[in-house]
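ok new one. same drill as before - structure tokens go in, u give me an amino acid for every spot. 453 of them this time. try not to just spam alanines like last time pls lmao
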């Protein structure tokens, strides 16, 4: 049973939905205006709100916004007589869960309600740790996070597990991209295969046959027919890690697969259907690579349907205590240790440190400290010196005098100027240090107006 609130100025709709939903076993409340609806929402904290866009007093979008402010977990299904795409997109963007046209088709509404309730359930399950944290009952594979950014990510995970849309996960190294991919998989198709492919680890020609398979004799060395990862993943998940490293040639092929949901094995003619969900991950900013011509924009838009941006650890330090609890718990079990925690003094160092390697770095440091520690509390002597790293990291997320954080462009410009100061105007050497090509360097010099003659 769920608590459902119907907000619609049409009395007959209110009454018929009330009747139908009550019969389905839900607890129903109804309101004829936006104001009345918001009041009722405060009183009963509904699980689902069915909301008409045209209301006599306040417009539906404002009601939606206020509802979300008040109770961000409520799932709002919007209803309207208008069929235009803009309204639909706007409704979804502003946080509606679903969107249904009038006249209401009761089956469609029922499906939307079921989906909303399942999603709520899933979100509660995934973020269940928030409630359980004090009892320290963590499961392996849980995603730890308490801040707003992570809560939003839990929600997105909840939504994407209801479909098979492509998901793009962006985040610095060690932020948990693969962990999130696995959680999505486990909550979508746990009995089907999960197959990870690291796009940077294999040479281009082999990667193609790795992904799509090949027919016997299609190239030297292809002594027998081989199925590719897309086929092996069946109805499961294919995780394309480090997608930014895929060659432009293969990007074109992948784009075709995403468009047609079919492909051919290398050297073959049969069309093979893609049933697996594709999750791509990268620790680079794909948009920038698109702007630099290193990643196809059409592929980017295909991948970018649902994007999960994981913030780096230094931007969500509020998660640190819980993460440390979680990781120490895991370490204690694996290494048969009884580490109780991290000293206050060390926690202060942790808070100041920049964590370039993010959660993986935190985990590695804790493992090493747990191995060498003599006592049950990990102290300064159990860790390498992180204070140097802190200043490095602070330089990387530089602030100006007023405390405003620098933009990436500003940091990039500063760094390029610093390198030029160090090595002089030697383009070859500068490119080498920065790890970029000459044309990229030229573009950047022009962009930042750095004179170079
Ligand atoms: N929110 C989190 N809660 C608990 N553990 C986490 C979380 N995020 C990451 N981890 C752990 O940190 C380690 C690194 O995560 P993962 O391998 O998913 O990172 P990644 O983003 O794929 O890194 P890379 O870019 O280096 O491949 C793993 O052991 C993972 O379980
Ligand atoms: Mg990874």
């Amino acid at each position: 049973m769920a608590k459902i609130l119907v907000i619609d100025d049409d009395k007959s709709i209110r009454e018929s939905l009330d009747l139908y939903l009550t019969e389905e076993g839900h607890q129903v409340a109804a309101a004829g205006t936006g104001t009345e609806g918001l009041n009722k929402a405060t009183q009963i904290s509904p699980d689902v709100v069915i909301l008409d866009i045209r209301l006599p007093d306040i417009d539906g979008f404002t009601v939606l916004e206020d509802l979300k402010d008040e109770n961000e977990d409520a799932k709002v299904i919007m209803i309207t007589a208008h069929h235009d795409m803009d309204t639909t997109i706007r409704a979804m963007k502003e946080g509606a869960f679903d969107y249904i046209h009038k006249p209401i088709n009761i089956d469609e509404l029922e499906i939307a309600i079921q989906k909303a309730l399942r999603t709520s359930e899933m979100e509660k399950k995934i973020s269940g740790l928030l409630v359980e944290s004090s009892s320290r009952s963590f499961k392996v594979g849980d995603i730890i996070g308490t801040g707003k950014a992570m809560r939003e990510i839990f929600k997105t995970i909840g939504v994407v597990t209801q479909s098979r849309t492509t998901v793009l996960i962006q985040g610095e190294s060690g932020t948990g991209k693969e962990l999130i991919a696995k959680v999505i998989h486990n909550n979508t198709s746990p009995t089907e295969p999960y197959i990870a492919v690291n796009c940077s680890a294999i040479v281009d020609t082999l990667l193609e046959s790795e992904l799509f398979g090949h027919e016997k004799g299609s190239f030297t060395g292809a002594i027998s027919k081989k199925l590719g990862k897309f086929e092996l993943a069946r109805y499961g998940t294919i995780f394309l890690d480090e997608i930014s490293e895929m060659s432009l040639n293969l990007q074109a092929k992948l784009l075709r697969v995403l468009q047609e949901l079919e492909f051919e094995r290398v050297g073959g003619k049969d069309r093979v259907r893609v049933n697996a969900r594709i999750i791509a991950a990268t620790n680079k900013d794909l948009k920038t690579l698109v702007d630099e011509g290193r990643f196809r924009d059409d592929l980017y838009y295909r991948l970018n349907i649902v994007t999960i941006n994981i913030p780096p650890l230094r931007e969500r330090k509020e998660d640190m205590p819980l993460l440390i609890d979680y990781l120490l718990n895991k370490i204690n079990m694996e290494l048969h240790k009884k580490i109780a925690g991290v000293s206050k003094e060390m926690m202060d160092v942790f808070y100041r440190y920049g964590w370039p390697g993010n959660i993986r770095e935190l985990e590695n440091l804790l493992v090493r400290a747990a191995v060498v520690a003599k006592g049950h509390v990990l102290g300064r002597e159990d860790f390498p010196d992180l204070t140097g790293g802190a200043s490095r990291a602070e330089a990387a997320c530089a602030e100006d005098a007023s405390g405003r954080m620098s933009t990436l462009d500003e940091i990039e410009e500063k760094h390029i100027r610093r390198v030029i100061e160090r090595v002089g105007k030697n383009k070859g050497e500068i490119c080498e240090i920065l790890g970029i090509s000459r044309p990229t360097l030229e573009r950047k010099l022009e962009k930042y107006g750095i004179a170079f003659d």
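The CA atoms of residues 210 and 228 lie 5 Å apart. and btw Residues 408-447 form a domain with the Arc Repressor Mutant, subunit A fold (CATH 1.10.10).
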